[in-house]
Amino acid sequence: MPNVFRLLALLAACLAVPAGELVAPRASFPDIGQAGAYQPSGAIEVDISEYAGYAGLIVANGGLESAADSFVSKQYGLRLRLRLSESENWRAVHEGRIAATVTTADVLPLLGPRLNAVVPVLLSYSRGADGLIVRSDIKRINDLVGQTVVVTQFVETEFFLRYLAQEADIPVAIAGDGRLRSDAINLVFAADGFAAGDAFAADIESGARRFAGCVTWAPKTTEIVAASSGAARQLLTNRNLLIIADVLLVNAGFARAQPRALAALVHAALEGARRLRQDPERWLPIVQRAFGWDAARARDELAKVHLANRAENLAFFSGAMDAAGSFAYITQAAALVYEPYLPAGAPDCQRLVDTSALQALGQAFADDRVDIRPQGGEQAVEPVLARDIRFQFEDGTTLSRDAAGNQQALDRIAQWLRSGPGSSVVLIGHVEPTQRAELEKKLGRIPALMAARRLGQDRADAVKRMLVETRGVDPARIVTQTRGWEQPLPQVSDPVLNRRVEVQWRIAQ
User: Fold this and answer.
1) Residue 20: pLDDT band with limits 50, 70, 90
2) Tens digits of per-residue pLDDT, 417-473?
3) Is 483 helix (H, G, I), strand (E, B) or coil?
4) Whole-angstrom distance between the N-terminal and C-terminal Cα of the chain?
C-alpha cells in the first residue's frame, strides 16, 4: 500500500480538490492497544459527544458533573463525570483509561474479538441525525453506481452508505489512484461527517460534479440542500431507518469489579430518558447547559433521536424487536458490509452483551412498552432502492416453500419493513419472454401481452401472500404490480433470468 502522504496526494490530484478536504483510506481498522481494567480515582469518567441521544445520562447526572441532588448521586451515592469529546474513544475504554464511552452498534464488528468491553444498554436510535445528500439527478441508491460518494471511514456514515448499497445488491469500492469502478459505488473519505458535507458542498458550488453525494450529519444535511439552489437533494436520512443505534461501551474489568457502578450507568440512562419523555420542559434545560444549546436547538436535536426505554432495550438485545433493528441484525449487517476490513472473519458481537443490570430493573420500569413509531409526513412515493430477486416457483405462480433462496429473500424483505417504521415495499412481477412470439401468434399481440401481465401479477401476489402468511407482514405495507415481459433485463444471455420479482423499498422522510 502506498504511504499515507503519497496516497493522499494522489487522491487530491485525481479528484482535483484541495488535499485538506480528504483523508487517505486505511486498509484496516486502527489498533485498539492493550487491554486494561479501569480503576476510578474520584469520579467515574465516561466520554460522550455533543449529541441528544446521550441526554438521558446527562439528565440523570444533573449535568456533565454529578449534581448533589441528581438521580445518580441520591440513588447510588456515586460521582459521574461525563466528558465531552468528539474523538472515537474505543481504545481508551479497551485500555482502561476511562470507564465507558458511547458508540454505535455498527462499529462493534470492526473493534474485533479482543475488545475488552461490555455493552449493557441501548441509549437511543438516531432518527434523522445522519443523512445521504446527493445531486438532484440522483433518484435512488441504484443511481450511484459508477459514482463517487464522500463518507467518513469506520463510523456510522460509512456503514449507512454500505448498508444501503448491500440491500440494493451493489458493490462498494474505495477510490484510489484515480480509478473508479463502473459497476460499484466508489468511496472517498473525509475526516468527519461535517468535513464530508463540506467537500460535497464545495463540489456542488463549483459545478465540478466530482462527487455524486455524501453522508453527513445534521444540521449540515439541511444546510447543503438549502444553499445548493436546487442542485442537491436529501435522498434519505435515518429518520425512519433504525439501523444507527447508540450504545454504551463499558470497560469489562471495571464492569466485573464494580457491578453496582455498572447498574448505576444503566439505571441512569433509562431514568433520564424517562424523565425527558414525561416532562421535557422541566428537564431539557440540563441538556441545554451541558451542550451550550438554546431551547430551540435542544428541542430540535432531541426530536432527531429516540431515547430507548427498558422494554425496547430487552427487545433490542434479544432480537425480538419487531419495529426496529436489533443488536444482532445491526452487528451482523455491519460485519457483512465491512467484510473487506475483517480478514479474520466476523467476530461474535453477542458476547459483548451484558443485560444483567437491565434484567434487575424490571420493577422500576414495569410499565415500559416498545413504542417506536414512524416519523415525518406522508408515506414515501419514490423508492430509495430497488433490487431484482429470482424467486423459485414450483410452476408458473406457486412460490416454492422449500427453496432456501426464497426463504432468505423473504427474510430480507421482512427485515426491511421491521427496520424501517412506516416503510413499504413494492413487488413488481416480471416474465421471461421465451414464449412471446409463439403466444402472440396464437393469441394476438394484445391478448398475449395481457396474459404475460397476469402471470407477472400472480408472481408478485404469491410473494406478498408468503410474506403475510409466514413472516407476519401487514398486507397494507405491500403493493404488488406487474410489468409482464415489457421490461426485460438488458444484455442477459439466459432469458429465464427475467423470471424475477423486482423489490422496491419506500422509506418515509
Assistant:
1) very low
2) 988 988 999 999 888 877 777 777 778 878 878 887 888 899 999 999 999 999 999
3) strand
4) 41
User: CA of 311: how far to CAs of 240, 315, 347, 445, in Å?
Assistant: 20, 6, 27, 58
Q: Report residue 258: phi and psi, to 5°.
A: -130, 70
10 band by pLDDT with thresholds 50, 70 and 90 = very low
DSSP characters over 77-127: ---EEEEE--S--HHHHHHTSSSEEEEEGGGHHHH-TT--EEB--EEEEES
Identify how many contiguous H helices and E strands the chain contains and give both numbers: 18, 17
Cell of 184: 460499484
Q: How far apart are CA 253 and CA 262, in angstroms?
A: 11
The upper half-sphere exposure of residue 384, i.e. CA atoms within 13 Å in the direction of its Cβ, equals 29
Q: Is 27 exposed, middle or buried (CB count within 10 Å of its CB: 0-12, 13-18, 19+)?
A: exposed
Per-residue pLDDT reduced to its tens digit, 215-255: 998 889 999 999 999 999 999 999 899 899 999 999 999 99
Bridge-based pairing of strands 117-118 and 245-251 is antiparallel
Which DSSP letter does residue 324 get? S
Contact between 49 and 102 under an 8 Å Cβ cutoff? The reply is yes
Is 461 strand, coil or helix?
Answer: helix
pLDDT tens profile 132-180: 999 999 999 999 999 999 999 999 999 999 999 999 999 999 997 678 9
* Residue 359 CB-density burial (10 A; 0-12 exposed, 13-18 middle, 19+ buried): exposed
- The angle formed by the CA atoms of residues 69, 70 and 73, to the nearest 5 degrees, is 90
Domains defined along the chain, listed by start: 44-127+242-360 (3.40.190.10), 129-240 (3.40.190.10), 385-506 (3.30.1330.60)
Contact yes or no for 141/376 (Cβ under 8 A): no
Q: Is 174 exposed, middle or buried (0-12, 13-18, 19+ CB in 10 A)?
A: middle
